[in-house]
Each structure stands twice: as C-alpha cells, then as structure tokens.
Amino acid sequence: MKKLLILLFSLFFLSSPSVFAENFIYHCNLDTYYKNSEAESWQNKYIRFTFTANNNNISIYDHEYNFTYPDKNLIIYSENPQLVAIYQDSSQFSSLVIDKPNNFGTYTISYSNGNFAGQFGMGRCYLQ
Question: Which whole number is the average pLDDT over 3-31?
Fold first, then answer.
C-alpha cells in the first residue's frame, strides 16, 4: 500500500503541467481595449509588454510606464501547445494565453472591485 501511494504521488507530481516549466521571455505588442471606470467609454491603444518566466511565475513589464508590476506574477498553468497563465486576488483576475506555434497572444485583466474596469489585449508575441 505504501509503494502504491508513493507511485501515485510520483505520477501526479510528474504529470503536473507546471512542474517543469521552462524559463522564457516573450515580447508582445498588444492591441488593447480598456476601460478605467463605468463613466468612461472604452478606449484603445497598443501596449508593449514583456512577460518573463522564472520558476513557474511570469513577471509583467509594461514598456509604456517603464514598470514591472510588483506582486502580480502570473502562475503558469500549462505550456504545451499554448502557454496559459493566471493571476487572481480579491479584486482582480488576469490571464495570459500565448499560442506558441502562431506567436499570437491575449492578455486580459478583469477587476471585481466595483469600478467597472477591465482590459483586453491581443496581438503578436515573440519569444526572445
């Protein structure tokens, strides 16, 4: 019984999609639609992001503000064939999906703090 539990645990651990995540850097230029409050209308602009993976976490660098977002690292959920990563806290849910064979990505932010705000970007992402 003990050997069976060890075997099952090992299979589960080794089959987890993010256990052996690779380190990488993606540069993305995303056509982004965003809304900062209910009173504002939807706006549009291109935003350049750099997504850097290290130890199953992805940090986000925003080139417009020359800023890396602290404490909002995305957690890698899956890497093959699409990279899928998410972040969630009490007031925000973010997701990054990059279709690696086609170099196409989406990055979304949904706020749940009552401000009726959000962001959706899509475009090309290139592996460094």
Answer: 63
CA dist 25 and 10 (Å) reads 30
* pLDDT (tens digit per residue) in 62-92: 999 999 998 889 999 999 899 999 999 988 9
Question: Which pTM was predicted?
Answer: 0.81
**What are the b/e assignments for 85-119, b being 16+ CB within 10 Å?**
bebeeeeeebbbbbebeeeebbbbbebeeeeebbb
Whether 72 and 61 have beta carbons less than 8 Å apart is answered as no
- Does the pLDDT of residue 4 top 60, yes or no? no
Domains and CATH numbers, the chain: 24-127 (2.40.160)
- The tokens for 7 are 């075997």
Alpha-carbon dihedral 111, 57, 45, 122, rounded to 10 degrees:
-100
